[in-house]
Amino acid sequence: MLAVGACKASRTALRLLHRGGTTTPGRLAMKMDQNILETVSRGMEIIVVTGTNGKTTTSNMIEHALSGSGRDVLANKSGANLLPGVTAEFTSNATATGKPKKHYAVIECDEGALKQVVPKIHPKVIVVTNLFRDQLDRYGEVMHTLEEIRKGIRLVPDAILCLNADDSLTASLALGVPNPVTYFGIDCPVGEQENLEISDARYCIRCGTEYVYDYHTYAHLGGFRCPKCGYRRIHPAVAVTEIERVSSSGSTVRIKFGVDEKVSWNDNGSDIGKNIDANQTSVAGQTTAPTSQNLTAGNTAETDQEVSIGLPAVYNIYNGVAAIAAYQAAGFDRNEVISSLADVHSSFGRMETFRLGEVPLQMILVKNPAGCNQALSYLSGLNEDYQAVFCLNDRTADGHDISWIWDADFEKVCRDPHMKHAFVVGDRADDMQLRLKYAGASEKTIEEMPDNSALIEKLKQSSLPVFILPNYTSMLSLRAALGTITGKQAFWKG
Amino acid sequence: MSELKICHLYPEVLNLYGDRGNICCLQKRLEWRGIDVQVARVGLGDQEDLSGYDLFFIGGGQDFEQEVLLEDLKSGKADAIRSAIEDGKTFLCICGGYQMLGHYYETADGVRCEFLGAVDFYTKGGSTRMIDNYAFRLGQESGGSTVVGFENHSGRTYLGKGVKPLGTILKGCGNNGEDQTEGVRYRNVFGSYSHGPILPKNPEFCDFLLKTALERKYGSFDLEPLDDGFEKQAHDSVLAHVLAGTAGKED
After folding, report:
1. Is B238 an 8 Å CB contact of chain A?
2. How many angstroms separate the CA of residue B235 from the nearest CA in chain A?
3. Which of A233, A318, A410, B232 is deepest in the core (most CB within 10 A)?
4. Which of A143, A198, A434 sits opposite B200 (nearest CB)?
C-alpha cells in the first residue's frame, strides 16, 4: 500500500512545516491509487453531512456524541471537505496495508463533491442541512447545487437520507429516489414573521406556484405549502415544538420525537417524483414520499423532551435537530446525542470564543447571505455595546464573486446604536467598507485595516466585546493568528 | 423640490448576485443630494400603471423562474415596458433582465424562447459559463467612465445594427467573448452583464443614470458632487487587480 504511506508521510512533513496539510497528501494518494478511498473506508459506519450551511457544526455535534459515548471516530474536523481532503483523512487513519483503524466516521462533504465521495465510502446516512445561495460563481445557481446533491444521492440508493423538512429545496431530494428518508425541523414560528429577506425558493419546485407559509423560521425555511400541486412540508420525526430560551451561550428547546408523516402528492406532470422506485408505495398517478418508519426503530412512541444546545442562534437549533435525527437514523441511542448537545463546543471559527488579553472575542464564520443575516440578527439582538469586524476575501475557496454581501442585511448592524465601531480587513476590504457605508454606517465608524496583525493590535485595545464575521479563507488566516496569540490549538489538533 | 420615481421590476424573482444593491445605491445617492426618491416594487401579478415612473431596474434571475416571468410579461407588462422605453425612460437591466429585452434566447439545442423584442439584439446559449471579475469602458454616450464588475452567464448576446454596445471590454468576456462589446445602449436603456452589483463601485455610471432620468423629467439638471472616497477606493483597487489578472488570487 504505497499510496497510504505516501499520503501519511506527506501529511507529517507538511505539519512539521506548520502548514495544515489537509489536501495535498490526499491528492498524492489519489494519484498513486485511484481506489484508495474505497479501500481505506471499507466496512466502516459513516455519516455524511452536506448542505450549504451548518455542515461543520452538525458534523461536530454528531462526532462529539459518538466520541463522548466511547466510540473511536474519524472526522474531517479541518473542514477539508472535497475529495482530496476526505481521502487524506481516511488514508491517514488506515494501517499500512490500507485497513481502517476506526469503525465510525462523520464526514462533512462539499455539495459538489458529494457525487465523487459517497460512491467510494458508502455512507449509512446522508444528512442535508439546507440549501441557500452560496458561492454562486462556482455552482451557478442554487438549483444547480440541488442537482449536484441529487446526483450524489442517486449513486447510493441504500443510504438513509436525513433531510430538513422546513426547506422546500432540501426536502425535494426525497422525490424520485428510492432511498429511505427521515426528516427534522422546527414546528413553530421564529423571529419576525414578515419575511423581508430575499428568498431562494419562493416558487414550488414541482409546479412553479408561489408557496404559502403557515410560519417562517428564517430565510426560506418554515411551514411551506404549494396551494396548487399540494407539495408541502412533511411533519418530521424530530421536531422542535417550542423555543423556551435563547441566549448568547445557547438555547433550550422542546423537541417532539415521533415518526415522519407519510404524504402522497398527486403527480401532475412534474418531472420530479416520477422515478420513485417500484418498492415504494405507488398508486397510479400518485407518488408517495418515501418515508420509513423503521428509521426510528426502538423510539416509536411519541415523546416530548427538553433539550439544551450549547451554541447560540437559531441555525444551531437546526444543526442540533439535524444531528439528533441523523444519530437515531444511523441506529445509535439518541439520548447520547441529546445529552452531549448541552456541552458541544463551537467548531473552528463558528461561534468560537477567544480572550485577547482582557477583550472577549467571538468569531462567527459567514459565507452567504442566509448565514450572514443570522449572524447579524444575533449581534443586533444582544442589546449591549460592541465592536464589529468584517473580513472579506475572494479566493477560490470563498468564491470569487463577493456580490452576495449586498444581499445580506448589514443594515441590521450598521443602524444598531450598540455597534460602536467597525473594522474591515481582507482582499476585498474596500468592497466591505463600501457595503457598510450604504448600509447606513457613518464613514467615521468604519476603519480599514491593512492586515490581520494591525487588526489584532487594534482589538487588544478594545474596551468592548468584539464580534468578528469573516468569510472562509479570511477566517482561516485570522483564526491562525489569534490561535497563536491566545494559545488556542490549531484546527488539525482540535 | 425634485423627485425621482424608481420602479424595481420583479424584485421577488430577479434578485441574484446582490443586484438589489443597485436600488440601494440609486436611492442613497439621491437622498444624499436632497432629491426625493420613491421606490416601488412591481412584481408578478401586479397590474400597475408603469407610465408614472422615471427609472426602471431589472435584475438577474435563475433559469428555473424564467417561465413564470414570461407568462406575467404577456399579461400586459411587456407592452408597458416597450412604451416606457420608447418614451425615453431610463432603464438599468442586468444579466437575465438585460437578455429579456432582446428578441429571443436560443438554447444550445436550438429551442427559441421569445423575449420582449424591445431592443434589437438576441442571445444564444453557450456550453461554457463566462464567470469572472471583468472591466469595460463605457461609450461616450454613456459617460465614458470605466466600469468594474463580475460577469456570470452562459448566454452569448449579439447586437443588431441599430443599437450600440454599452461599452468596450478591457478585460473579460462581455456580451459574447468574441467582439469585445459589453451590454447595450438604446435610447435610455442601459443593459449589462455586470453584477457586483454594478452601481456602488461605479459611482460615475450611477450618477450618469440619475442625470439621464432627471433630465428626461426636468430638462437640464445638475447633480451636486458627493464625497466618493470609499467608492473610488473600491473601484480602483478591484480595477487594478482585474487588469493585472490578480483578482481572487492569494497575496
Report:
1. yes
2. 8
3. A318
4. A434
Contacts made by residues B242-247, CB under 8 angstroms, sequence distance 24+? B242/B133, B242/B134, B242/B135, B242/B148, B242/B170, B242/B171, B242/B172, B243/B135, B243/B170, B243/B171, B245/B171, B247/A394, B247/A400, B247/B132, B247/B133
ipTM of the complex: 0.97
- The answer to whether residue B228 neighbours chain A at the CB level (below 8 Å) is no
| pLDDT tens digit sequence for A175-222 | 989 999 999 999 999 877 765 556 778 889 998 888 999 999 988 999
**B64 shares contact with chain A (CB less than 8 Å):** yes
Q: Residue B250: inside a domain, yes or no?
A: no
Q: How far is CA B189 from CA A120, A243, B94, B97, in A?
A: 52, 50, 11, 12
Residue B72 lies in a domain: yes
Contact: A400, B20; criterion CB under 8 Å: no
Best mutation target among B8, B69, B150 (most A Cβ atoms within 10 Å) is: B150
- Chain B hits for A141, CB-CB cut-off 8 Å, are 16, 62-64
Per-residue cell: B20: 438589489
Residues A438, B21: C-beta atoms closer than 8 Å: yes
Render pLDDT for B59-94 as a digit per residue (tens, 0 to 9).
988 765 677 788 889 888 999 999 999 999 999 999
The CA-based angle A466-B24-A205, given to 5 degrees, is: 90
CB contact set of A431 (below 8 Å; sequence gap of 6+): A392, A402, A405, B201, B234, B238
Tally of CA atoms within 13 A in the half-sphere of A243 that contains its CB: 22
The pTM for the full model equals 0.80
A29-46 burial code (b ≥16 CB/10 A, e <16):
bbeebeebbebbbeebbb
**Region A234-251 average pLDDT:** 91
Instruction: Give residue B104's domain range.
Output: 3-244
The answer to the question of residue B75 being in a domain is yes
Within a domain: residue B82? yes
> CATH code at B58?
3.40.50.880
Active site residues of B: 95, 195
- Closest CA in chain A for residue B203: A434
pLDDT score of A138: 55
Q: Which domains are assigned to chain A?
A: 2-341 (3.40.1190.10), 350-493 (3.90.190.20)
Grid-cell match 439518541, residue found: A334
Q: Provide the residue type at A209 as one letter.
A: T
Taking CB atoms and an 8 Å cutoff, what residues of chain A touch B17? Answer: 136, 401, 403-404, 407
Q: What is the interface size between A and B, counted as CB pairs within 8 Å?
A: 101
Burial pattern B74-109, b for ≥16 Cβ within 10 A else e, equals eeebbebbeebbeeebbbbbbbbbbbbbbbebbeee
Give the model confidence (pLDDT) of A3-32 as tens digits. 666 666 666 656 655 555 667 677 767 666
pLDDT at B148: 98
- Closest CA of chain B from A440, distance in Å: 9
Residues of A contacting chain B (CB within 8 angstroms): 133, 136-137, 140-143, 198-199, 202-203, 208, 210, 394-396, 400-407, 427-428, 430-431, 433-435, 437-438, 443
Contact residues on chain A for B127, CB-CB shorter than 8 A: none
**3-state secondary structure (DSSP) of residue B165:** coil
Does B233 touch chain A if contact means CB atoms closer than 8 Å? Answer: yes
Residue-level pLDDT at B180:
97
Q: Indicate whether B163 pLDDT > 70.
A: yes
Tally of domains within chain B = 1
